[in-house]
Amino acid sequence: MSKSDTQPCCEKFKTSIGGQALIEGIMMRGPEKDAIAVRSNGEIKLDIKARKVRSKKSPASWPLIRGSVNFFDSQVAGVKALMHSADLSSEVESVEEPSKLDLWLEKKLGNESFQKLVVGIAVFFGLGLSILLFFLLPMVIVSFLDRWIPQMIVLNLIEGLIRMTIFLVYMFLVSRMKDMKRVFAYHGAEHKTIRCYEAGLPLTVENVRMQTRLHPRCGTSFLLVVMVISILVFAIASTVLLSIVPALEAMKGTLLYRVIMIGFKLLLLPLVVSITYEINRWAGRHDNWFTKILTAPGMWLQNFTTNEPDDSMIEVGIAAVQAVLPEEEGADRW
């Protein structure tokens, strides 16, 4: 752990601006604009787009709904940004010729519709793989234990421990991949730049460099909390379901029972994400001993998903943050 990791961050306020590491770049999302900053051929290329501001009266802005909506929206935006950064990055040495299928689809759908199709497929498979690995696999493993462990709470606890183990092993293995080290360094640059901005310091390389690369409102922390909240939600909801539908008790140990319980838990995932979002939102707005304890595991996990950036990466982070700053000072206050 470097010296900057242990240095406290003197926040003057908490911003709603957040980002994502890309291939040789960073995406930042502000209250009014999104920006993609990518270093290509030694220069920083910026792509800035206005954000569609959602009405506070919209159902998508209601508590326990906005979490799932914002999560899905961030996944779509992240995939688009990754594709764009791959196109801009000087690290992409060669571009493969499009296949006949790609050319046919682009001709039939048009370039814009084709891009939407590609993004949609990428988001579908990305979320699908995450659900399969971190949720469906533990559910299937534990479903075969119901013959020997009748207590639903115990089963959900075992399932949660398996899920957490898979998640932590996955994050550790990804952090050891050579190609991901630079991406995680840009992740560190994103955090350090936001820390500097929240401290009220001028956004210079020197000021950003001295900040910690760990941030309590990181997406990695969010995913870890999702894992924990899923244990509680699945345990409570499964117990309630069995009490409401006692016929399920008699089906324990059968294939149909396992399919029903797994399907029921998968349907609860949007609720889990939404509850986690509200917890993350609350913790992000408060700074006390309880929130420090609450965010500590996620902060620790960031030691694997962030690396110390070099000055060129910090410059990209500064460019990305400056591009999304709102015209009205304080409009981005969390």
Task: Kindly describe this structure.
- This protein has 334 residues and is an alpha+beta fold.
- 63% of the residues lie in helices and 8% in strands.
- It contains 13 helices and four strands.
- It has helices spanning 3-6, 66-88, 100-109, 111-143, 152-175, 178-198, 205-209, 219-244, 247-250, 255-267, 269-285, 289-305, 311-324; strands spanning 18-22, 25-29, 33-40, 43-50.
- A hairpin with a 3-residue loop joins strand 2 (25-29) and strand 3 (33-40).
- The protein is elongated and about 65 Å long.
- 30% of the residues are buried.
**Outline, from the CA principal axes?**
elongated
Structural class: alpha+beta
The number of E-state strands comes to 4
Computed CA radius of gyration, to the nearest angstrom: 22 Å
Main beta sheet strand tally, sense and closure: 4 strands, antiparallel
Residue share in β-strands:
5-15%
Low-confidence blocks of residues: 1-8, 90-95
State the end-to-end CA separation. Answer: 29 Å
Question: Biggest sheet: strands side by side, in what order?
Answer: 1-2-3-4
Secondary-structure element order, as H and E? Answer: HEEEEHHHHHHHHHHHH
Number of helices: 13
Averaged pLDDT: 85
Name the descriptors.
single chain, disordered N terminus, 4-stranded antiparallel beta sheet, 334 residues, 4 strands, alpha+beta
Summarize the structure.
With 334 residues, the protein is α+β, with helices and mostly antiparallel strands.
